[in-house]
Amino acid sequence: MTAVLMIHHQPDDIRGVVEARFPDVTVGYASTVEAIGAQLDALKPEAVFSIQDARLPGKYHHQAVTAPSVQWVQVGGSGYEQMQPYDPEKIVLTNSAGILARHLAQTVTGAMIALNGNFFRYRAQQHAHTWAPIRFRPLVGQTLLVVGLGQIGDWVAKNAKALGMTVHAVRRRQEPVAHVDKLFAPEQLHAALGDADVVSLHVRANDDTRHMFSDAAFAAMKPGSFFLNTARGMVCDTAALIAALDRGHVAGAYLDVFEEEPLPATHALWDRDDVFIMPHSSDHIVGWETAFTEFFADNLERWCAGAPLVNTITG
């Protein structure tokens, strides 16, 4: 290993982590769209660590998998759609799935409690100086449907079970899971939706999941249920969600991801009392950049030793 390129809009967040452990490796940084190509040409890195966000969108990171010198790319985060297509014969692709899974699940759990507990209605009453108790639905006895039982979905399921909920899940593999009461195959999604009081999405962004939730899926949901999306914006047809909210079929939504990010200031979702918006930050813990970078450094150590990498993408 001679050179590594770190792509992140704010390099001071991650600077020095790799250098401290690998003093003989040249480390370069790209913090702008223009700098990515320039650094790939000048540095000729063997490995690239890539963190995308709205300030440095993923489409510009794709250059990493086509650069002649690059053999391995690690994505800071779990999603890797921005690296598609790539040649698996030339590039080893890894991601950072699981590093922040438990923390993201914590915010999803908080959203379930807040939506069911009418916290947002109480907040509005506070601003209006209104004293008016509102009955709420306890989570105990409710059914949560986790769509996508990866590492995040699994933690969401564990939390829900601990709170007394019945937990259903949709996933391809049908092996029993201790904290999941019932498993459904992907083709059974619409049947599963009818029993769920809360639906939480944790699937990857690909052609199979694009607009997985459109008019038909929302119509299949239990009347008065809640919808949570911390997966990817393209999984949900926003117009279909708004229509379901307008007719009261979906009682409320917690949204951390959107079809267009940042969400335009004029978007209809902003002013809805039945929607809670997060700016793609449900796992935005203090020190997340360092956590991802240290995981990359761990994998870099394996790479240099010729050992198998953790979180290698195989499909």
How would you describe this structure in keywords?
10 helices; five-stranded parallel β-sheet; 315 residues; alpha/beta; elongated
Spell out the blueprint of helices and strands.
Elements: E1 3-7, H1 17-21, E2 26-30, H2 33-43, E3 47-50, H3 63-66, E4 72-75, E5 92-94, H4 101-116, H5 119-127, E6 143-147, H6 151-162, E7 166-170, E8 182-184, H7 189-193, E9 198-201, H8 215-220, E10 225-229, H9 238-246, E11 250-255, E12 275-277, H10 288-305
Parallel strand pairs: 1-2, 1-3, 3-4, 4-5, 6-7, 6-9, 7-8, 9-10, 10-11, 11-12
Helix pairs in contact: 4-6
- Major sheet strand order: 8-7-6-9-10-11-12
Instruction: Sketch the topology as an H/E string, one letter per element.
Output: EHEHEHEEHHEHEEHEHEHEEH
Distance between the termini: 26 Å
Mean pLDDT, rounded to whole units? 96
Unreliable parts: none
Q: How would a textbook summarize the main sheet?
A: 7 strands, parallel
Query: Globular, elongated, flat, extended or rod-shaped: what is the shape?
Result: elongated
Instruction: State the share of residues found in helices, binned by percent.
Output: 25-40%
Our estimate of the beta-strand percent is 15-25%
Category by helix and strand content: alpha/beta
